[in-house]
Amino acid sequence: MAEPILKVSNVETFYGPIMAIRGVSFDVPQGGIVTILGANGAGKTTVLKTICGVMDPQKGSIAFEGRDIQRMDPDKVMRLGVSHVPEGREVFPFLTVRENLRMGAYTRRDADGVAQDLETVFGYFPVLKERADQRAGSLSGGEQQMLAISRALMARPKVILLDEPSLGLSPKLVLEIFDIVTRINRERGVTILLVEQNANMALKVADYGYVLEVGRIVMADTCARLLEKEDIKEFYLGIKDQGARGQRRWKKRKTWR
Amino acid sequence: MDAEVKAGSSERFEVEGCDTIPKLFWHQVKARDGRIAFREKELGIWRSTTWREYGQRARLTGMGLVKLGLEAGEVVSILADTIPEWLYADMGTMGAGGISNGIYPTDAAKQVEYICNDSRSRFMFVENEEQLDKWLEVRERCPLVRKAIIFDMEGLSTFSDPDVMSFDDLLALGREHDAANPSLWEERIAASQAESLALLVYTSGTTGPSKGAMLSHRNVIFQLGNADAFFPVGDNEETLAFLPLCHVAERTFTAFLPLRTGAIANFAESPDTVPENLREVAPTTFFAVPRLWERFYSGITIRMREATWIGRQAYRWAIGVGLKVAEQELDGRKPSAGQKLLLRLADFLVLDNIKRSMGMHRVAFAVTGAAPIAPDLIKWYRALGIDMREGYGQTENCGLATGMPDQIKLGTVGTAAPNTEVKISPEGEILLRGPHVFMGYLNQPDKTAETLRDGWLHTGDVGFLDNSGYLKITDRMKDIIITAGGKNITPSEIENQLKFSPYISDAVVVGDRRKFLTCLVMIDYDNVAKHAQDNNVPFTDFASLCRSREVQDLIWAEIEKVNRNFARVETIKKFRLIEQQLTAEDDEVTPTMKLKRKFVNEKYKIMIDGMYAEAA
C-alpha cells in the first residue's frame, strides 16, 4: 500500500488538564475521503485542530507526506498543503466574498493561478459569483459554508480538513455541498478528511471511516462495512429495531463490532 | 429423595427462633424497626431504607401477589439488576408462600423464556423498559405467567397492557388487600415450612441448558446459623451490593446474611460504577469475585509504574514490609515489635493511601469466591492490611461449603462449614454432605441422581484434604487436560497465574489430547491500550490493538513469565488473542465475566486448530 498522505500516530491532546484526545492513530490515503464520526465532545474537532497546528499534541506524531508536522505553526502546515475548513464556517464577515477568497490565497504568489482558481470555485458554487461583492456576513448559512470551502480551495491544498460542513444547513443544501465535496475530491484529486455528525451523509461520500468515542477510536472500517454494523445503525443512523412495543427508548450496550 | 433423609434432615435449624426465611425476615423487621436496612443512590444522594420500610414494601408486594392469585408453592421470577426492589419482590414472594427465582438481567430473551417455562413461573418482575421488551418478545410462549410487574416505569408512561402492571400499582393493590385481610400476611408467613422449597437458583449451564437448583428454607437457615463461623456478625457492618442477585453468593451476602447480622447493604448504581461507589461507601466487609480483585490489583500496579521514582520506591518498600508481615502471619508467627512499628509507618505513609484510593480502607474482612484465585493475589491484599479470605461453595450447597478459619492456609479454601462433611472420592472428586446440600434440580431427576448420591453432593471439582482438614481445589473435574503424551494438567492453576498479569483479563488453556498446551487470551483493554499508547504503538479499534506486534509480544512475555513456574510439559507454547471486546451479554462469558471454557473451545475452534496446524 502506498504511504498515506496523512498519518496520525498515538496523538494525545489536552485542554488544560483535560485529555481530549486519548491516543488516536489513523491514516488518510492519498486522494481518498476519510471520515471521522463521533458524538458531541468525542474529540473530532480537536483532532482536526491538532492536525492543522491550531492545537499542539502533548504526545504522538502527525506526518504529512512523510514529514512530521506536529507542533508546527498553523500557517506553515497550511503552506505545506493542508487547509482547514473550521466548524461554524468562520468567514470574515466584513470582507466581501471575493476578498474572503483572496484571503484563502494569501500565501500564493502566482496571480494568474489565483485568478484561474477563483473562476474554478465560482464554477463549483455559482451563487458565490453572484454575491462576489457582497459582504460575507450577509450570506446565508449555506452560502457561507460554500465560501469557507472555496476559501480553503484557494490555497490549492493537497488535503482539506472539513469540520461539520452540514452544521445548520437544510437537507437539500447538505446534499448539494456533499456533492461538490465529492467532485472536488474526484476532479482535483484533493484528499479530504471529513468530520461529521451527519453520519448517514458522511458514510455515503467517504471511502473509509473511523468512529471516535471519548477521545479514542473504537471502530475503523470501510464505510460500506460500517453502514452494516449494528452499533452504527443504532447510534449513528438512528435505525433500530423498535421491539414489541414499537417504541424502544433504552439503548443497547455499545460493543463496536 | 432418601438422600435428604440420610443427610440428617430430622435435625431442626433455627436463627433467632425462626426456621424459615420469611419468619426470620418478619422477626427482624419488627425487632430492628427504624434501623437502616440498606441504602441506594438516588439522584446522586445515598438514601437509606429502614427495616420497617423494607418490611412494609415486602409485605405489600406479597399481598399484591396474593390478590393477583399467587398460591403457596408457585414460582415468581425476578428479572432485574441488583436493586432494592429485587429484595422486596424476593421477601414479598417468600412471605406470601411463593418460591422466588432470579433471572440474570444479561440473559437473552430466549433464556428468559426457557427459565420462565422450566420453573413454571406465575409472575414475572421486570426491572425496566429494557427487560420488559425481552418479556414482551417471549410472553406468547410463556402462557403460565399471569402478570408481569415493572419496577421502573421511566419511558413507559404511555404504555398500557392488560398483562403488565407497574410495581407501584402492585403495592397499591397489596395495600387494599392488606387492609381487607390484616392478618393474612402473618398467617402466610407462619405457614412457611422449613423443609419446603424456598428458592430456585438457575446455574449458568456451560454444558446444556441451565438447571434450576432447588434450595429449601432449611438450607438457607442452616447456612445463616453457621455464619459466625467465618464472618463477622456485628451489626455495624456495611457492604456493597453489585453482583447479580440471581447468583447464590450475592444473594447470600445481600439478601440473607443481613437477616442474621444486620449488615447494611449499599446498592451500587450499576456494574460500571463499582469503583466509584466503593470509594463513596467504604464498606467494612466486602465480597467480590476474583475478576474484580484482579482488576483492582492491576489498576494499582499500573498506577505505580506511572508514579514518580520516589513514589515507586515508597510503594516497593511499603508493600515489602506488608508482605513480610503477611507471610509471617500466614506461617502462624507473630510479627516482632519492630516489624509492627515498621508496618504502622508503611501503612501511614503508603498502604493506607492505596486502600483509600480503592475505597477499601475500612474493609476489615474481605471474601473472595465463586471462582479460583491466585494465592499471590490474596497475599498482596493481606500485605495491604486487608483480611482477605477465600471461601468455596456452589449453588448446590447453598453458597458456602468451606471457609477460611483464623489460621489461614494460602492456596486452600479452608475447612468444612460446621456440621457439614467434606470428603474426597476415590476418583479425587470433592464430595459434600450436610444440611446445606440442596433438594435437587427442578424437573431433572436424572441430573439430581447424578449429583446427589447416598446423600453426598458430587461437586465435579477435584481436590484433596490435608491433615488438618483444609481443602485444596485442583480444578473442575471435566476441565482437566490430558495431553497427547498422557500428562494430566490442571488448566485453572495456569490460568490463575496468567490472570494475575494486569494485561490479561482472562485466559483459557487448551491442550486436551493435543501435543502441547496453548491458550486463548482475553486482554484487559484499558491496560493494554495504555501500554500501547505509552509505547507509541498505533492502533485503531480493539482488533487492531490485538494484532499489533508489540501487544502480541507483551502478552507472550507475560505468558513466558508464568511458564517459568511450571514444568516443561505444562508450559504454554502458543497463544491467540480474542479480538473482540466481550461484554456480559456475550455467550462466551458468564454473567460474572469468566470465559466459558467449553463454549470458547467450540467457538474459537478454527483459531485453536490453527495453532496446532502451524506446528505440524
Question: What would you say this structure looks like, in words?
Answer:
The complex is a heterodimer of chains A (257) and B (616). With 257 residues, chain A is α/β, with parallel strands linked by helices. Helices cover 35% and strands 25% of the residues of chain A. In chain A, α3 (97-104) packs parallel to α6. The longest helix of chain A has 18 residues, at 171-188. Chain A is globular, with a radius of gyration of 19 Å. The mean pLDDT of chain A is 91. Chain B is α/β, with parallel strands linked by helices and 616 residues long. Chain B contains 22 helices and 27 strands. In chain B, the strands form seven sheets. Chain B has an eight-stranded mixed β-sheet, with helices on both faces. In chain B, strands 17, 18, 20, 21 and 22 form a five-stranded antiparallel β-sheet that branches. In chain B, a hairpin with a 7-residue loop joins β8 and β9. The longest helix of chain B has 22 residues, at 309-330. Chain B is globular. Mean pLDDT of chain B is 92; it is low at 1-8. The interface between A and B is medium-sized, with 26 and 24 residues.
